[in-house]
Amino acid sequence: MESVIGLVVGLFCVFLVLLKKINGWYIESKLEKTTRSLLPPGDFGFPFIGNMLSFLKAFKSNNPDRFIDSYTNRYGRIGMYKAFMFGSPTILITAPEKAKQMLMGEEIFIPGWPKATTKLIGDKSFIAISIERHRRLRKMTAAPINGYDALSTYLAFIEEATISSLNKWFRIGSEIEFLTELRRFTFGIIMHIFLSTEGSSIITGLEQAYTDLNCGIRAMAINIPGFAYHKALGARRKLVEILRSVLDARRKRKELVAGKNNKNGKDMMDRLMEVEDENGLKLGDEEIVDILIMYLNAGHESSAHITMWATVFLQENPLIFRKAKEEQEEIRRSMISTSQKHLSLKEIKKMEYLSKVIDETLRLVNISFVTFREATEDTNVDGYLIPKGWKVQIWARSIHLDSSVYSNPKQFDPSRWEGVIPKPGTFIPFGAGARLCPGNELAKLEISVFLHYFLLDYRMKRVNPKCPIRYLPHPRPKDNCLATISRSSCTD
């Protein structure tokens, strides 16, 4: 009986190996023979699903890095491998110099996000449009978000929201889901910037829809009830409905005040409604909605997760906490000496060590662990060929945790950034090149202000400090960082 079972298992293993080989032959048969010989090493997994099972298995375990490790262990640390991901033949990039080439070569390597991501965020958003349209829209939207005047304006609201939120969580006096509360906090900030005049009912509706949307952004595009993508599509429809209703309401209000030129109090939706290109053409409703969905999503998820992890790392490392706190205490003393009651961008620039804490958190956590591109022409990279039309994935996580790039890469060590300017391609939490995340400065401002007040006046104690981590869609404790917030004592 045992011999029969062994035979069946052996035959099944042989069948799986043959299935993989047939799938690889089929995919490569579409290429010229000379092209096939220049592909980097790797494998395409099984028909239709490719390497997605091993990817999902790794990222649903406590060791997501084993997915890329399976390639480096088999083929060496060459920095690029062939695979089949999200329904397309793909080249995985895991080396800084190659990542730089992909991210900086905007004309050759255009956005190549999975179908699910593009459909959910919108094919007229920044992640899907051409480089020319991207530059035009980026120029239009970047200044109101990352410009000096804009950041100065937003700083007052962020500071007020931070003080109020920390005090509220402290007064609760019991356990809270710290990450959940931070997501609400950052969502309120981004809503103020983009939709400042809307009511709380709109904010509540958008917040829940974004929670569902995020679960499907990096899922396989399976539109069947029970799958994350199906639920996320429903969330997108709700988002579109809400934002279109806001657009319609604002147009009606503008008609009532036609001829009045009041530039005060305008938020990002107002600016998107009014902007014109060089030919006098305005953005359509679909473009405005897709841009807002992208910005509203990116503008609060990353900030909330990084703020949570920075707080966790600071609490877990008392010496680092003390050094960061001393810097903030010096800033507060300086403000008191000049009777200054509120933070300004001048104080933010003085937070040099805190900035290193944030950068180290970005490196270690890897909220955006992979960036997607597509080759517009056959491209040779270090002797290997990336065929035209193939997808390219730049694995920031692998680069940020590479021991040949960073010593003790899994150790939280902000001092590694002292006197260091990262080499191109080695530190890419916000991407690089023309498509660098336009909201990066705003995100760091939010995080800096929150950590400033937290370090000075509060402490966090996790209920489950050893809680397992869930890595998709973003790394987070499975209990959403269940914790209590208390005020710090004078002796802390």
Automatic annotation (TrEMBL):
Coiled coil: none annotated. GO terms for molecular function: ent-kaurenoic acid monooxygenase activity; heme binding; iron ion binding. It is found in: Membrane. One of its GO terms (biological process) is gibberellin biosynthetic process. Signal peptide: none annotated. One of its GO terms (cellular component) is membrane. InterPro entries: Cyt_P450 (IPR001128), Cyt_P450_CS (IPR017972), Cyt_P450_E_grp-I (IPR002401), Cyt_P450_sf (IPR036396). Heme binds at C437. It comes from the Eukaryota. SUPFAM superfamilies: Cytochrome P450. Its cofactor is heme. This is Ent-kaurenoic acid oxidase. The keyword Protease does not apply. It is a single-pass membrane protein.
